[in-house]
Amino acid sequence: xxxxxxxxxxxxxxxxxxxxxxxxxxxxxxxxxxxxxxxxxxxxxxxxxxxxxxxxxxxxxxxxxxxxxxxxxxxxxxxxxxxxxxxxxxxxxxxxxxxxxxxxxxxxxxxxxxxxxxxxxxxxxxxxxxxxxxxxxxxxxxxxxxxxxxxxxxxxxxxxxxxxxxxxxxxxxxxxxxxxxxxxxxxxxxxxxxxxxxxxxxxxxxxxxxxxxxxxxxxxxxx
Amino acid sequence: xxxxxxxxxxxxxxxxxxxxxxxxxxxxxxxxxxxxxxxxxxxxxxxxxxxxxxxxxxxxxxxxxxxxxxxxxxxxxxxxxxxxxxxxxxxxxxxxxxxxxxxxxxxxxxxxxxxxxxxxxxxxxxxxxxxxxxxxxxxxxxxxxxxxxxxxxxxxxxxxxxxxxxxxxxxxxxxxxxxxxxxxxxxxxxxxxxxxxxxxxxxxxxxxxxxxxxxxxxxxxxxxxxxxxxxxxxxxxxxxxxxxxxxxxxxxxxxxxxxxxxxxxxxxxxxxxxxxxxxxxxxxxxxxxxxxxxxxxxxxxxxxxxxxxxxxxxxxxxxxxxxxxxxxxxxxxxxxxxxxxxxxxxxxxxxxxxxxxxxxxxxxxxxxxxxxxxxxxxxxxxxxxxx
Lengths: 223, 387
Ligand SMILES: Nc1ncnc2c1ncn2[C@@H]1O[C@H](COP(=O)(O)OP(=O)(O)OP(=O)(O)O)[C@@H](O)[C@H]1O
Ligand SMILES: [Mg+2]
Prior knowledge:
Bound molecules: adenosine-5'-triphosphate, magnesium ion
Helix content of chain A: 25-40%
Oligomer: heterodimer
Shape of chain A: globular
Number of helices of chain B: 11
Radius of gyration of chain B: 33 Å
Number of strands of chain A: 10
Helix content of chain B: 40-55%
Structural class of chain B: alpha+beta
Order of helices and strands of chain B: HHEEEEHEEHEEHEEEHEEHEHHHH
Distance between the termini of chain A: 20 Å
Number of strands of chain B: 14
Largest sheet of chain A: 6 strands, mixed
Number of helices of chain A: 7
Strand content of chain B: 15-25%
Largest interface: A-B, 38 and 30 residues
Strand content of chain A: 25-35%
Number of domains of chain B: 2
Structural class of chain A: alpha/beta
């Protein structure tokens, strides 16, 4: 359902462009759980951000539903991000002045129309599902790191996206909490959500159905 | 919960910043509104004071002239008829124009000569109350007449005839006493007998008639052309003309005061805008990651622009409300301290307050337009920087 073809990306540096990704190709099937692992600096985050349209590649294509998303006009790209793709970052990105529930509802607050009633209901259920029943109206500052990450996952869940992109969602959590989060992602995947997760913890990676190892800007081997 | 929830919650959470910015903006609004009230009152009262220097509109019969020539020799223009105006009709017509609130005085006049002993002296019939409004510079030795058969003498005439206040004499067919003698004015009034209009009408056997009417109009709020046109509309067939030099001289002073106020108000407003604009700009820079997050969640550029603009609109409207109220209060106090207006203190108008609110909201939105546009250009990848 998602296919990357010959992705290349380099960042500008003092000594000219520094290549980070060279010729990366991969496919993600519907309902798959793909883990991307590799050493620090191998380009995992860069690849994930290109797949989730947050970064534009220098060369190559990312095909989703038969279309090259790297060349979509601005409005369609925004619609894609709003509906089909969901992202979870390492640092639980929440707006500090919105409650947990409001943060989860952010994807439904993009216009002047109020968030639909059923979306609010679903948001409550998503928060309950990630184990935050009773904390719907807390501000992020009064939630633990793990709880904040759960809010971010609930936000990805609520819009019933097709693919969830997660960049080290366990990175800032203790191992036990990290395992819970990955377990949660596994549950969601079992319900049909496609997941792409970056991690450098091989223990978590083993939970995935497929692992892609990055080495010096290219996939080394696929297990 | 919709797009506007975001700026509202943000303002609530960061309320010290929001309150501070609102106060800065409200300060701008307050001083503008206060200056506006003061300048309006001061402009009015300044003009009322300047009205002391004469009438600015003249209403007279159309002078019918006929160019006469005979056998190719021009005999010049003949003024072939002197028509009189009906006093009551003319004055009431002038008093009933839509802009009648701007009419400060209506001074009808009848001019002629009458026998005083062996010689003929010029007599001007006036309504003394109206005349005194127009000629605030008049100083009198004695009193202004309170009875019909009392007159006022010009200083030069009184000196030549050896008369003083209290003197009685026969003018035409009437017995009159001198109520007062004008101090020298340097004008036409020095050489005439000023009589009550009714007395003059009897003297010249022209009951209810006048030669012309001088009008003093206040033009701080509207151009004199409007007043002239309205009087002309009520009195077709008469000549109504603005004494332009009088108006211009008078309005120059009033406009100077108003322009000065406007300039000061603009400077204040621009500074307030700069404060809001810069603070918004730094907020945008601080909240780059937040904006990136919104963009990665599928918020359009227009949506991000709206979030920042609506925060400014909220701020501007709040500042406008404070400014309209505080500005009115401050303006009132200043007017009271200056004692410029007598009893007329500026009145509070809810409609004006609403206009100030909307205006300030618009101005704040303009001030925020550049920072908001900058926010809208931020890429989703900005979210990758940790918050
Ligand atoms: N915005 C940027 N500008 C310049 N260089 C960058 C930028 N982002 C990443 N890089 C460089 O690109 C390389 C790959 O970075 P990337 O973040 O993709 O690595 P990673 O595999 O996710 O590492 P980690 O496991 O530490 O998160 C690194 O050498 C990094 O220094
Ligand atoms: Mg990374």
